[in-house]
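RESIDUES AND SHAPES:
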Amino acid sequence: MEELLANITWTPVMVSFVLAYGLGWLWYSPKMFYEKWRSGKGGEVVQHPMWMPMTAQAGSTLLLAIITNLAANDGHVGHAILVAVTIAGFIKANGFYAGKTRFAIGVEVGYIIAVIFVMVAVNLVL
């Protein structure tokens, strides 16, 4: 574990984390996709305390930022992209199982693709 952590370059990790998390706020805001995404979720929406999804999102975003950085540092950016596409595939399948509209699924999958684009770009620039 120590060896794994030693290879992390924290500046691109934190910059890509902040940018990707901020993108999520914009992506799911009324300025972009919120209304149509929310209406496409289907069924009754269960309300959870806001800290629950925000904490899960922050943790997942940070982990993807670390994975992307480790892959970029090893010259294997494609591996990080493959991980993100896999995550997007699971989100898409889950959306179909949950009965979401194609638009809602597209918003969720599109966000993951946008996030990996941001993270790869930050790691290549920094």
Summary: The longest helix spans residues 102-125. The chain has one domain: 2-125. The mean pLDDT is 95. The chain has six helices and no strands.
